[in-house]
Amino acid sequence: MIYKRSSALFTEAKKYIPGGVNSPVRAFNAVGGEPIFVKQAKGAYLYDEDGNKLIDYIASWGPMILGHAFQPVVNAVIEKAELGTSFGMPTQIETEIAKLTVSMVPNIDKIRFVNSGTEACMSAVRLARGFTGKDKIIKFSGCYHGHSDSFLIQAGSGAVTFGSPNSPGVTQGTAKDTLLAQYNDLDGVKDVIEANKGEIAAIIIEPVPGNMGCIIPKKGFLQGLRELCDKHQILLIFDEVMTGFRLAQGGAQELLNIKADIVTFGKVIGGGLPVGAFAARNEIMDYLAPTGPVYQAGTLSGNPLAMAAGLTMLTFLNEHEGIFKSLADKTSYLHKGIENELQATDLTYTINRLGSMISVHFTEEVYDFKTAVKGNNKTFKKFFHGMLQEGIYLPPSAFESWFLNDALTYEDLDKTIAAVGKVAKTL
Ligand code: HOZ
To answer: d(Cα 87, Cα 368) in Å, to the nearest integer?
Structure first.
């Protein structure tokens, strides 16, 4: 495949945008080479500026669960745009999507819409602190909850990809209120709680992490966190920005049958437009302005175009529950196919999968950040570029999950598996 025009566009972009991109992971630094500039996308395919067609496994990092340019969402956005694109006043559609969300997701009574997953997690933590009157939070190494200050402490995703999991610019004062634990290590969490008794407002976690590649919760881990939170009056925040409306209609809470106190959303909830949200039971949400004292606001929050896209997407998912099984079946098929191909080599690897999230880690067992960073990045880079040459677009970093979309056909999956077989022989 030729990427001449992408390369020229990247050179031009770098003159005016830091690193040529508006979000670091897009820059390909983790895998080397230059990013591909996309022109358009439809269904499971990306079409780049050089005219290449690629099978897409990032789905815009999750939102495009039904494939790109899903016609009902496109139509809803066009229709809404004709009526005005922003008012800074309440609109009926905000209540419609709120009502639908509350009916789909367990354990929430009210929801507040914002513009990104970062905003949702940042606001959820402020709400938890205000509600409990405590300052500290526990987060897990390698989990990523957006780029707000409190979370850039051993963060995953682009932060670890670019070697700054603890970003300069985050003050010591902020950092000291973020306590670290290791994913899947319940005893470690107990120790952190013991050492900070009565001071912890919340534990925030990606119930199924995707930001150090996909990681699966060990049996009893999330339930154990729930019990610890109950015992110590700590709020459990599930960051379901990736898992919400992806693992099931009710997200990880539903699939894994664990109750969170506050849930954050992004990605699928916006149908491909910039939307985040956080939700909880009434007593917590009513602590938020204007009913309560915890302040949070946004000029474009609840934007009509974004709400129209989100509402159309969620309505479709609500009416087609079979999609979650269809996605999980496709992902399982891909898993088995890749496994067969990799088994035929002497590569060291592990494949983690849950629902429609999957990662190939080039190391043995991966169950937390320490084991994730053992992955052989040289092999990953070669794998990524080999797959790209075969017309398959994977996340350009080992510290990201792949996201399947339901527009992928079994023929696409077979092509992908065959490409893995071909590329694996060269690694
Ligand atoms: N938050 C996305 C999943 N890790 C990555 C998107 C980005 O950082 O651009």
So the answer is: 44
Domains plus CATH for the chain? 4-69+321-424 (3.90.1150.10), 71-319 (3.40.640.10)
The model's pLDDT over 345-400, given as tens digits with 9 standing for 90+, comes to 999 999 999 999 999 999 999 999 999 999 999 999 999 999 999 999 999 999 99
- pTM here? 0.97
Of 144, 349, 367, 393, which one is the catalytic site residue?
A: 144
Give the pairing of strands 136-140 and 178-181: parallel
Of all protein residues, the one whose alpha carbon is nearest to atom 6 of ligand 1 is 61
Confirm whether 39 is a catalytic residue. no
Known catalytic residue at 412: no
Question: Distances in Å between the alpha carbon of 20 and those of 7, 24, 27, 292, 375?
Answer: 11, 9, 7, 42, 27
Tokens of 8: 């020229």
Are the beta carbons of 52 and 3 closer than 8 angstroms?
Answer: yes
Burial class (CB in 10 A: 0-12, 13-18, 19+), 180: middle
